[in-house]
Design brief:
Blueprint (H helix, E strand, L loop, with lengths): L14 E6 L5 E8 L4 H14 L9 H9 L9 E8 L2 E19 L5 E14 L8 H14 L7 E5 L5 H8 L2 E2 L4 E5 L10 E6 L2 E9 L6 H13 L3 E3 L3 H12 L4 E7 L8 E13 L2 E9 L9 H15 L13 E5 H9 L13 E2 L5 E5 L7 H6 L16
Parallel strand pairs: 5-6, 14-15
Antiparallel strand pairs: 1-2, 2-3, 3-4, 4-5, 4-11, 6-17, 7-17, 8-15, 8-16, 9-10, 10-12, 12-13, 13-14
Amino acid sequence: MMIIPPMSTTEPPTSTHIINLPTNESLIYHLRSLADSSIDIDKWTAFCSSVFSYKDNPPPPSYFARHFYNDPRRDAALVRVLVYDHDEDEEIVSSVRIFRRTLTLGRGSDAAVVSLEAGGIGEVCTSPDHQRRGLSKLLLNDALKIMKDTGSGMSCSLLHASPDFRPVYAKVGGYECVTSFWSVVPVLSNKLTQETRGQYQRNGEELSWQVRQAMFPQDTPQLHRLHQKYSEERFITIQRSEQYWNDYVREELGDTLWVLTNIQGSSNKEDQSEMIVAWMSIRKRGGRYQLREFGFDNSHSGTFSIGRAMRHLLGVTLNQAGEQIDPTSESGVALHLPTIVLSDIQEDGEGNLCLDLKNTVEEDDEGWMYVNFDESKPNVLEMTRREFGRISHVIWPTDSF
């Protein structure tokens, strides 16, 4: 069971800040929490969208609204904004959001899964008209103060930053980078299959399998349990509750989440049961595909290897993404995936079923950054840097903020 420490009932304080400009003009900003009302949240989502409108594929307000409303642990009080009053109208001009998350750190010496409460930093943005005035720095310091408060229950903070902003977070908040080991491997399209149903033999018995889109909430208990075993018991990653699967993962991945199932029982559908063997979601980024979500149930390794599961799921997900799977051509697309997942595939001996393992290239992610508040709790930075017993850091893109 996922136990969430209670959040302090005290709402973070409001404050007023005077910024003196080089022109000798002084501007007054008010720092406050977002009101838990649709009017204020709509203003905030529209503001965030406007700041990122310069992107080639800018996120609409609904993107930020979805991230907020689908988060089971959302808290409007942890969305901190600076507002500027002008013409009798209050304008949001800068924003920082604290995401309440639980991190799992793999199994400890007593075989129990170790976890700790963390505050994620996201939705960091400032209006172009109010940049270079230290507003984001002001908000980040405010967020750090809130997270360090003993009532928050948070013992560390994490965020993902592009190379240009990493020095800023290091200087202002003491954040340090961790290495997430990722690899790029060519996919052999001529070895993929788009079949969604089939049979196989086991102990003289003919059994069935199928690939289908995930169904919520029917698949939630299995996905929740299997994700615990595949990711939470092995990696430093985000812990998921069943509610998180139903409310957040379901909406984030939509129809891109596919499951490979093992069908057991008689030919009578009423007597059959489906056991999820593996699941996958991919997305296209920068001319290649990223493994957005993945897991495998090792208890089925006698009938389905992880390499064979990858072959079935990749064929279907790439076809859904619009890729032409040509059985006569060895050329294929590239897949960006956690190196430890690639190692799992290599170890099972059937990784070459659809992946060109000889041409794998390492491409690590240095963007995740952490700062520790409580020295009595496990330190993620130390755990990822050990010479021996190092724990892999895998934040699935599904869980990014």
